[in-house]
Design goal:
The structure holds 2 protein chains of 2 kinds. By secondary structure, chain A is of the alpha/beta class. Helix content of chain A is 39%, strand content 20%. Chain A has helices spanning 40-58, 84-99, 114-124, 140-158, 167-175, 189-196, 235-240, 258-274, 276-281; strands spanning 7-14, 17-24, 31-36, 62-67, 107-112, 130-134, 180-182, 185-187, 208-211, 218-222, 247-248. Chain B is an alpha/beta fold. Chain B is 42% helix and 16% strand. In chain B, the strands form 2 sheets. In chain B, strands 3-5-4-6-7-9-10 form a 7-stranded mixed β-sheet, with helices on both faces. Chain B has a two-stranded antiparallel sheet with strand order 1-2. The chains are: A alpha/beta, B alpha/beta. The interface between A and B is large, with 40 and 54 residues.
Chain lengths: 283, 291
């Protein structure tokens, strides 16, 4: 791979949209990892750390690709037209695009938060040779309910008590097909409906690791706590981001994740080396 | 784009023929180049359609770009308010003008992005900054809730004493905030503050970012047009010093001020995004009309 190709952004035509993908290459990758990011509102906080992880992998001979789901970030598309099904298809489309470029090297799916949940579904549908999940959301509604909390806290700032809606009011709005504005995104009823039928499959629901019985593909589920902020959202981080407060509480912006990243990368390398032909057999 | 040996990632929005003036968006605080609710992406799309090629780049260490940022939020804010990214943005502006054959670039930023835009324009006239759209720019200085952290930890005994007093004041503030009678105390405090600020009208508060105010006033004096856009939530916030009025009075330049009611600092609530677009479009049509 040419030096200029080692880190390259591009737009891929997937499902009628242009999906932004940024690849972090390695000279001779031992494996490839598709990074499936969190829900768009969490992407804001975690992106820099997520990209740091991609470069960490690339420096250890693991090529990585991150992308933005359709209708979010750098990708094209209208957010109101998007739902979890569409974003799962984005993952599958990215996998298919990558599968043509891995030159026989194993491809791992790696998801954070919502990305963990969607990556697991793509994995169950036969994509990838391994699966790594960091704090995968247990189900779609859990993700959306956390988003609704943002709406409610904004209402505290924007509406007088008598004018405020409850979480149930908003849920009813969504179920009735009325859009709800949350953190700059217009949620549709379809987003809510697609969340209602989205669950992490039971074998992957608890922290730990294992191999898929039928195919022997390895998987790992790790939990990230508040100390992993800003990779995950924390209260101290949100307080530090209050623009009106001149006094800023202590909150990490750029943590040294080396101690956490190292064993995660080692797991990918070990899994890739263990028996790549086995991992490929299902394909 | 490369800067100081670092690879910076960005997105360009190019549409029909323009008048040679482009728009460069500067990261809002530590957020990626799309900003909250992808506001920057939507604004850039719309401005490009209107004849202004638009660009969004991640500054070093933010979003997709290479580079390191400080370990703590407060240190990052200090860097921004002390113009640490001005050189990078000025270099970007120069490079974009050269690559796309633009006569000038308008810098747009929210919060810290607005501060960096001012410092970048002031740092290098050769960067060709044709105007500034400054969205909810803070004029005050951010400081740590723990005055004994960060680069100023090695202080003289006198400064340490002052820092300890500040720390005690902050602890007392936290204690007051945890009391049941806090709303009454806060109301009384703001009334008192309003009275004292009246008596000190025209005098900058002690925690003002003097360098920022001076830089903005200087640019206005030189004829660089600027648009200040401020967000005003429907529930009134405590009255603060009128920095925009102060700068306008100091500099006889081309400063316009658009107030957007009912939205918040990030401009994504209650139609804030559409209102920002309208304000910026109208201002651009005045200062750099598209063909």
């Amino acid at each position: 791979m040419a030096k200029s190709e080692l880190e390259k952004g591009r737009f891929l035509d997937l499902g009628g949209e242009r999906v932004y993908a940024l690849s972090f290459g390695a000279e001779t990758p031992a494996a490839w990892v598709l990074l499936c990011g969190p829900f768009p509102t969490d992407r804001l906080f975690s992106l820099a750390a997520w990209v740091k992880w991609a470069r960490f992998l690339a420096a250890r001979d693991i090529a990585a690709v991150r992308f933005d789901y359709s209708g979010t970030g750098e990708s094209t598309g209208r957010f109101p037209d998007m739902d979890f099904d569409r974003w799962r298809r984005d993952i599958e489309g990215m996998c298919d695009w990558l599968a043509e470029r891995t030159d026989g090297r194993p491809l791992f799916l790696h998801g954070l938060g919502m990305g963990g949940l969607l990556a697991q579904k793509a994995f169950a549908a036969g994509r990838g040779d391994g699966l790594l999940m960091w704090s995968p959301s247990p189900n779609g509604l859990e993700i959306l309910k956390q988003g609704l909390m943002i709406r409610l806290s904004m209402d505290m700032l924007l509406c007088r008590a008598a004018d405020r809606k409850s979480a149930n009011d908003y849920i009813q709005d969504l179920k009735s097909g009325r859009p709800v504005q949350i953190d700059g995104y217009s949620w549709s009823g379809a987003l809510w409906t697609s969340g209602e039928r989205l669950f992490l499959d039971p074998p992957y629901a608890s922290p730990g690791e294992g191999v898929e019985e039928e195919t022997g593909r390895p998987w790992r589920h790790a939990v990230l706590d508040d100390r992993m902020s800003p990779l995950v959202k924390s209260q101290s981080m949100l307080r530090a981001m209050n623009p009106r407060a001149a006094v800023v509480p202590a909150a990490p912006l750029n943590r040294d994740f080396g101690d956490f990243f190292e064993p995660q990368a080692a797991w990918i390398l070990e899994s890739a080396a263990r028996d790549p032909s086995n991992a490929k057999r299902h394909a | 784009m490369s800067w100081d040996g670092l690879r910076l990632h960005g997105t360009s929005h190019l549409a029909g023929p323009g008048n040679g003036v482009g728009v460069l968006f500067v990261n809002s605080g530590s957020l990626p180049r799309s900003s909250r609710g992808d506001l920057y992406a939507h604004l850039a799309d719309a401005l490009a359609e209107g004849g202004y090629p638009s660009f969004r780049f991640d500054l070093p260490g933010l979003g997709d770009s290479e580079g390191e940022i400080p370990p703590e939020f407060v240190e990052f804010y200090r860097n921004v308010q002390e113009a640490a990214y001005a050189g990078c943005v000025a270099a970007m502006a120069r490079e974009l003008r050269r690559t796309y054959g633009l006569t000038g670039l308008v810098l747009v930023g929210i919060c810290g992005g607005a501060q960096t835009s001012v410092f970048a324009a002031a740092k290098e006239r050769g960067a060709g900054v044709a105007g500034l759209a400054l969205l909810d720019m803070p004029f005050f200085l951010y400081r740590s809730s723990n005055p004994l952290t960060g680069p100023k930890a090695r202080l003289s005994p006198r400064r340490r004493l002052l820092a300890a007093i500040t720390g005690a004041k902050l602890k007392m503030r936290d204690w007051v905030l945890s009391q049941k009678w806090e709303p009454v105390a806060t109301k009384a405090y703001y009334r008192l503050k309003k009275m004292t600020s009246r008596s000190k009208a025209g005098v900058l508060p002690p925690n003002s970012n003097q360098a920022l105010i001076k830089a903005l006033a200087g640019l206005l004096d030189q004829g660089v047009p600027a648009l200040m856009v401020t967000a005003h939530p429907p529930i009134p916030e405590p009255q603060t010093f009128d920095y925009i009025g102060y700068v306008a009075a100091q500099a006889g330049g081309r400063l316009q001020h658009a107030k957007i009611r009912g939205t918040t600092h990030s401009f994504v609530e209650n139609g804030g995004a559409e209102a920002v677009l309208e304000a910026v479009r109208t201002w651009l049509a005045d200062v750099a009309p598209a063909p």
